[in-house]
């Protein structure tokens, strides 16, 4: 998902609902959000990004935010928003690599758990 406009509250809420619905509908394992065109973030928008990551995690998907402008990062820190569960990368390419590595790691852990379960039942 690439956000190319500054988000106002209603649009941000719609984005949150649409993304979570899409993760559920497609069983997506990852969400990549490009905010390179976003120049202003307030506490509400920061909370929406955190909510998306938390909801996606509950649905077994990782979230990576890319393209954050320095002013946005400074604002988020000054607002005291930790953005728990949100992974970040500088750009789309690095974000996709990070997302792929997290998904691969999760699948390897699941395979190891499956193997351990198989050994226990044998």
UniProtKB/TrEMBL annotation:
<dbReference type="InterPro" id="IPR002645">
    <property type="entry name" value="STAS_dom"/>
</dbReference>
<dbReference type="Pfam" id="PF01740">
    <property type="entry name" value="STAS"/>
</dbReference>
<dbReference type="InterPro" id="IPR051932">
    <property type="entry name" value="Bact_StressResp_Reg"/>
</dbReference>
<feature type="compositionally biased region" description="Acidic residues">
    <location>
        <begin position="104"/>
        <end position="122"/>
    </location>
</feature>
<protein>
    <submittedName>
        <fullName>STAS domain-containing protein</fullName>
    </submittedName>
</protein>
<feature type="region of interest" description="Disordered">
    <location>
        <begin position="103"/>
        <end position="122"/>
    </location>
</feature>
<feature type="domain" description="STAS">
    <location>
        <begin position="1"/>
        <end position="99"/>
    </location>
</feature>
<dbReference type="InterPro" id="IPR036513">
    <property type="entry name" value="STAS_dom_sf"/>
</dbReference>
């Amino acid at each position: 998902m690439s956000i190319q406009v500054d988000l106002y509250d209603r649009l941000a809420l719609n984005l949150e609902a649409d993304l979570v619905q899409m993760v559920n509908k497609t069983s997506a394992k990852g969400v990549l959000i490009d905010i390179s065109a976003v120049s202003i973030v307030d506490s509400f928008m920061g909370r929406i990004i955190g909510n998306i990551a938390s909801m996606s995690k509950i649905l077994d998907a990782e979230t990576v935010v890319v393209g954050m402008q320095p002013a946005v990062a400074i604002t988020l820190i000054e607002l005291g928003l930790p953005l728990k569960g949100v992974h970040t990368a500088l750009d789309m390419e690095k974000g996709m690599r990070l997302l792929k590595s997290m998904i691969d790691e999760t699948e390897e852990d699941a395979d190891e758990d499956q193997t351990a379960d198989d050994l226990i039942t044998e």
